[in-house]
């Protein structure tokens, strides 16, 4: 008969997605454990006619490896420097002759994701690192987005975060997302993004052209108003969404002028890229309730249109808007800026 022997402990190290260690949950862990051979009862041999015959079932080892599983409770507050340790008594190797099983010692290491799936189907590179419980990520923005701002999809451990940032982003700017970092000593830190401005292939040329057009726009004489007085625009308090939009409209006007200026050139790549950027800006405004005032082909409406000239060669019915010199915008039904238009006469 084999001597009573306490079961051995099993130490198991595994890499797991870091986000799984930041959620309080029950996780099933599968592993291999050593159990006494059922054929030779842990001896490693069988006695046949007073002779010892090696046990073929366990190859004379006295034990075999079997599949086992155990549930463990993940408590994020016990996470330390992306590592999580837990001991499960009685889940190790089997003992012999009635002795207890050993323990299962789990050492889980949280691994940063290599990419995050964005809602629009793109793969985002999070470039995560950490300093204690502060999770850090480096994100690249285009030069045009840095100048004019917009909507950004940023990676987090749990998925993505949508941020709307104003223009004027400086290289190396920081953005802090509270409570989305790692746990350390029971306290969860923040997620801090470092924004790096990385100009695209044609962006420097586009920005130079925009600067030129904006300079021309400032130097151009003011348009002479027509007989109709300009519509009354509502004054919103500073810091509100409409106030921010009013500050962004000159930049959008410059994008529109740049696109119009490129219609006569053969530079389709620049033109298509600029059109896409302008469309993204308009979509972002629409998501916040800001919409363009319908103009061309519409009946002149003194409440939303500001007539600056009469067009006698448009071929349109008298009183219809024939051309838009500057787009108008509304916010939640209120006029932010009237459309500057020509009216068929």
Structural class: alpha+beta
Instruction: Note the total helix count.
Output: 4
* CATH homologous group name of the largest domain: Head domain of nucleotide exchange factor GrpE
CATH class of the largest domain: Mainly Beta
What is the CATH architecture term of the largest domain?
Roll
Overall pLDDT: 85
Provide keyphrases for this structure.
Nucleotide Exchange Factor Grpe, Chain A, domain 2, HSP40/DNAj peptide-binding domain, 3 domains, 345 residues, 3-stranded mixed sheet
Please sum up the structure shown.
The chain is of the alpha+beta class. It folds into 3 domains: 10-111, Urease metallochaperone UreE, N-terminal domain (HSP40/DNAj peptide-binding domain, Sandwich); 116-197, Urease metallochaperone UreE, N-terminal domain (HSP40/DNAj peptide-binding domain); 203-344, Head domain of nucleotide exchange factor GrpE (Nucleotide Exchange Factor Grpe, Chain A, domain 2, Roll), CATH 2.30.22. It is 19% helix and 37% strand.
Structure write-up:
The protein has helices at 143-148, 203-219, 241-262, 268-287; strands at 10-17, 25-36, 45-48, 51-54, 63-74, 83-88, 104-111, 116-117, 123-124, 128-131, 134-141, 149-155, 160-166, 173-177, 183-184, 187-188, 191-197, 290-292, 305-311, 321-326, 329-331, 334-337, 339-344. The chain has 3 domains: 10-111, Urease metallochaperone UreE, N-terminal domain (HSP40/DNAj peptide-binding domain), CATH 2.60.260; 116-197, Urease metallochaperone UreE, N-terminal domain (HSP40/DNAj peptide-binding domain), CATH 2.60.260; 203-344, Head domain of nucleotide exchange factor GrpE (Nucleotide Exchange Factor Grpe, Chain A, domain 2, Roll). The protein contains 4 helices and 23 strands. Residues 220-226 have low confidence and may be disordered. It is an alpha+beta fold and 345 residues long.
């Amino acid at each position: 008969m084999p001597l009573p022997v306490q079961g051995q402990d099993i130490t198991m190290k595994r890499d797991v997605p870091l986000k799984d260690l930041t959620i309080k949950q029950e996780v099933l862990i599968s592993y291999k454990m050593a159990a006494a051979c059922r054929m030779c009862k842990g001896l490693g041999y069988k006695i046949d006619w007073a002779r010892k015959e090696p046990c073929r079932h366990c190859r004379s080892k006295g034990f075999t490896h079997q599949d086992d599983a155990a549930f463990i409770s993940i408590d994020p507050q016990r996470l330390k420097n992306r590592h999580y340790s837990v001991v499960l008594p009685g889940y190790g190797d089997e003992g012999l002759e009635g002795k207890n099983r050993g323990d299962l010692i789990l050492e889980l290491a949280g691994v940063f994701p290599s990419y995050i799936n964005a809602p629009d189907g793109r793969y985002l590179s999070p470039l995560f690192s950490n300093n204690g419980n502060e999770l850090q990520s480096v994100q690249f923005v285009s030069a045009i987005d840095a100048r004019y701002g917009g909507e950004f999809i940023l990676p987090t451990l749990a998925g993505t975060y949508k941020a709307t940032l104003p223009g004027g982003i400086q290289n190396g700017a920081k953005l802090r997302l509270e409570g989305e970092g790692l746990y350390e000593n029971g306290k969860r830190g923040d997620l801090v993004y470092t924004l790096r401005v990385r100009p695209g292939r044609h962006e420097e040329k586009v920005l130079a052209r925009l600067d030129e057009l904006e300079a021309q726009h400032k130097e151009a004489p003011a348009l002479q108003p027509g007989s109709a007085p300009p519509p009354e625009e509502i004054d919103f308090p500073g810091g509100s969404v409409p106030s921010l939009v009013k500050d962004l409209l000159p930049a959008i006007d410059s994008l529109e002028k740049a696109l119009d200026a490129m219609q006569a050139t053969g530079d389709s790549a620049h033109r298509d890229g600029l059109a896409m950027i302008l469309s993204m800006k308009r979509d972002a405004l629409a998501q916040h309730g800001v919409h363009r005032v319908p103009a061309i082909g519409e009946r002149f409406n003194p409440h939303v249109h500001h007539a600056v000239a009469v067009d006698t060669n448009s071929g349109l019915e008298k009183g219809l808007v024939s051309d838009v010199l500057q787009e108008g915008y509304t916010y939640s039904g209120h006029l932010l800026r009237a459309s500057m238009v020509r009216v068929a006469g």
